[in-house]
C-alpha cells in the first residue's frame, strides 16, 4: 500500500479534545521504549535528535525525550500541539520543541542529515507514506532509524467474566454502527500494518533505507513469542484493567467514534454508540454475576513495531 487518505478527524481536534485524548489513552510500557532504543543504538544509531511524528498531545514524545539531546514533537493539529506544549516535557538538555507540521513536510527546524531517530506512535496509518519516507530519508543521518508502531484494542481479555459474549456483542455493535466510519487508515492499523507502505514497496520507491535489516515485532497476537516472553504489560504500561467509566472514555477517543458523533448529533446520552456499548458490557458482566461496584474490564491489546534503518 502506498498513499493513505488524509486524516482530518484528529487534525481538527481542539485543545480540549487533545487534553481528553491525553488523559484517556493507554501509555506505553518503559520496556517497550527500551526495546526501541536498544535496537536503534545497537545498529549504529545515536542519541542526538529524535522527532516524534504525529505526536498528538506528546504521550510518546515525553517518554522518549530524556534519552536524547534534542527532542521534537510534530503534529498537524494545532489543538494537539497546544495541549502538548501545555504538558511540556524535556530532553536531556532542553525543553521538548513542539511544532505544528504534517508528517510529509516535517518542517520542524531540523537540518537535513542531522536527525538520529524518527518515531510514529499509532499514527503512520494516516501518513502519505511515499512522501513521508522521502522526507525521512532527507532528515536522517546515516545509521539513523525510523521506528513506527501501533497499538490496538483487541476486545476484552479472557480474564473478564463472560468475555466471549461481550466481544461478540460489541463487535456486532461496531459493525452495525461504526463500520461506515472507518477510514482506510483505521483498517491498516487494525491489521497491524501488514499493508503499510515501506520504502521499498511504495511508489516511487525510496532507495536510502536498508531492506535487509528491517525489523517487525508483534505483541499480543496468537502464538507470538515476544508476547509470551515479555508478558502482557510489555506494550501497555499496566493499565489494562479499567473501570467502566474509563473504558467508555477510552473508546470515545477513536476517530470512527468521533466521525459517528459528527454524523449523529441528535444521538447523545443513552443513544450515544459508546454508551450503548458500555451498557451492553455491563449487562453481560451482570449476567455473569459481577456486582455493580466491581464493574471493570481488562482490555486485550495487540501491537506491532516496525524499524527501518537508513543506509
Automatic annotation (TrEMBL):
It comes from the Eukaryota. Residues 51-148 form the Methyltransferase type domain. CDD domains: AdoMet_MTases. GO terms for molecular function: S-adenosylmethionine-dependent methyltransferase activity. SUPFAM superfamilies: S-adenosyl-L-methionine-dependent methyltransferases. PANTHER family: METHYLTRANSF_11 DOMAIN-CONTAINING PROTEIN (PTHR44942), METHYLTRANSFERASE TYPE 11 DOMAIN-CONTAINING PROTEIN (PTHR44942:SF10). This is Methyltransferase type 11 domain-containing protein. It comes from Penicillium brevicompactum. The lineage of its organism: Eukaryota, Fungi, Dikarya, Ascomycota, Pezizomycotina.
Amino acid at each position: 500500500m502506498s498513499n493513505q487518505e488524509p486524516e482530518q478527524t484528529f487534525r481538527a481536534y481542539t485543545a480540549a479534545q487533545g487534553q481528553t485524548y491525553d488523559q484517556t489513552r493507554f501509555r506505553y510500557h518503559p520496556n517497550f521504549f527500551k526495546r526501541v532504543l536498544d535496537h536503534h543504538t545497537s545498529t549504529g544509531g545515536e542519541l542526538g535528535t529524535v522527532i516524534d511524528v504525529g505526536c498528538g498531545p506528546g504521550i510518546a514524545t515525553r517518554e522518549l525525550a530524556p534519552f536524547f539531546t534534542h527532542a521534537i514533537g510534530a503534529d498537524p493539529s494545532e489543538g494537539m500541539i497546544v495541549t502538548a506544549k501545555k504538558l511540556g516535557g524535556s530532553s536531556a538538555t532542553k525543553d521538548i520543541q513542539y511544532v505544528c507540521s504534517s508528517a510529509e513536510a516535517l518542517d520542524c527546524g531540523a537540518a537535513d542529515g542531522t536527525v538520529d531517530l524518527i518515531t510514529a506512535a499509532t499514527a503512520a496509518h494516516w501518513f502519505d507514506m511515499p512522501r513521508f519516507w522521502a522526507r525521512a530519508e532527507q532528515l536522517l543521518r546515516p545509521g539513523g532509524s525510523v521506528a513506527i508502531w501501533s497499538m490496538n484494542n483487541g476486545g476484552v481479555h479472557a480474564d473478564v467474566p463472560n468475555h466471549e459474549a461481550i466481544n461478540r456483542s460489541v463487535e456486532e455493535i461496531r459493525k452495525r454502527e461504526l463500520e461506515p466510519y472507518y477510514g482506510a487508515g483505521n483498517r491498516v492499523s487494525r491489521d497491524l500494518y501488514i499493508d503499510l507502505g515501506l520504502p521499498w514497496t511504495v511508489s516511487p520507491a525510496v532507495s536510502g533505507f536498508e531492506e535487509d535489516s528491517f525489523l517487525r515485532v508483534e505483541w499480543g497476537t496468537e502464538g507470538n513469542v515476544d508476547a509470551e516472553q515479555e508478558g502482557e504489560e510489555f506494550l501497555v504500561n499496566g493499565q489494562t484493567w479499567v473501570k467502566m467509566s474509563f473504558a467508555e472514555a477510552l473508546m470515545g477517543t477513536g476517530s470512527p467514534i468521533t466521525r459517528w458523533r459528527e454524523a449523529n448529533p441528535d444521538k447523545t446520552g443513552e443513544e450515544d454508540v459508546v454508551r450503548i456499548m458500555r451498557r451492553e458490557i455491563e449487562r453481560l458482566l451482570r449476567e455473569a454475576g459481577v456486582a455493580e461496584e466491581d464493574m471493570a474490564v481488562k482490555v486485550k491489546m495487540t501491537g506491532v513495531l516496525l524499524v527501518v534503518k537508513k543506509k
